[in-house]
Amino acid sequence: MNEKTTSAPFSVWAIADLHLSFGLKDKSMDIFGDEWVDWTGKMHSSWSQNISADDLVLLPGDISWAMNPEDVIPDLEWIDQLPGTKVMIRGNHDYWWGSKSKVEKLLPPSIHIIQNNAFNFNGVSVAGVRLWDTPEYNFDEYIILKENKKANALSMHPADPEHDEKIFMRDLSRLELSLKELDKKASHRIAMTHYPPIGADLGDSRASQLLEKYEIDICVFGHLHSLKPNSLPFGEKNGIHYHLTSCDYLNFKPLKVL
Fold first, then answer.
1. Is the pTM of this model over 0.90?
2. Among the CATH numbers 3.60.21.10, 3.40.630.10, 3.40.190.10, 3.30.470.20, which is that of 7-256?
């Protein structure tokens, strides 16, 4: 169980789907829409202006487009030089992400990962896992379909119910492994998932029931893109505050969750 403490006052922020590509050639996010033009500059500016060195920053997956460990290093260095202690989970596009031990060897000092464990920071305990698609809910009605097929592919992929269910159940088990590692004495218990753990109507789901079982206070997630502005009514359900933190949905400004 990782742990970090500081005596200074702090806040907790979240932003997902950074989709960095500093180690790659000709990989720009603006093919997914004009809002992505200079996306790293927008994030860098807002992050630097609002987040302090004593803060905790949650990164719920899709960190980098890199395909191998060597190419992800410039992206991790970019994150490291920004203020705050960062903790992240794997997203569905983080193909560079291998075993926990291999990933930890790549990490600069300010970055930590969650993989079947939990991370503790000044009384805040954080668990997390990627999750996957589930037939319990979908967000198609909230997504703006674009003429650019690649833009649509960022949020959608061909359905394979049997395959999706197998992956979802595996990650649901991994989520519980992580939740079991949470500090029982923590003042705040936070979960990170890459895929949403609940539908827009906040109806019960297998993931949300698990989060309630382990008395989570806040859940942050990403994965969804090209959304109609301010369209998703995520909020509070049974004591858990659900926050969508995809960077384009947040206009590339980290969200303060605590």
1. yes
2. 3.60.21.10
